[in-house]
Design brief:
alpha+beta, six-stranded antiparallel beta sheet, two-stranded antiparallel ribbon, 8 strands, 20% helix
Length: 138
């Protein structure tokens, strides 16, 4: 059991998915398709029409009230989870959805890029995280 303590959440999720697909103790029906834009474990923030993505994943327990949006930038606060938890969620989730981690480890702002957008995750100084999504040029 001590060897299992070192297993990452991602590896644990893959192991769980493999067991579920193999039919170990579950519903014989295959799972419903999941959007490639958001993980099955959390809610998703709906993006405005005309954006390269239709929704953006939120950490489990997170909500995104009162967004600020324009044609090129969407920015929202994530309530219900602290900044470090949000950053950890995105560090695990976004690379699997096609976003490259482009942040400098010396900075407090997490940066990702891909799928036609640039993403910043930073502390809002209220204990909440702020996510800013900008359409990439071109």
């Amino acid at each position: 059991m001590t060897k299992m303590r070192g297993i990452s959440r991602t590896a644990g999720a893959v192991l769980f998915a493999c067991l579920a697909i193999a039919g170990c103790g579950g519903d014989p029906q295959p799972p419903a398709p999941v959007s490639s834009q958001a993980p099955a474990t959390g809610a998703a923030y709906p993006m405005p029409a005309g954006w390269p993505l239709t929704e953006f994943p939120l950490p489990p327990g997170g909500t995104a009230p009162a967004p600020r949006a324009s044609d090129t930038v969407v920015s929202f606060r994530i309530d219900g989870v602290d900044t470090e938890s949000a950053k950890g969620f995105y560090a695990e989730t976004l690379p699997g959805l096609g976003y490259a981690d482009t942040h400098n480890a010396n900075l407090a702002i997490a940066r990702y890029e891909g799928n036609g957008v640039k993403i910043l995750v930073q502390d809002e100084q209220t204990g909440s995280a702020r996510v800013t999504i900008t359409k990439s040029a071109g």
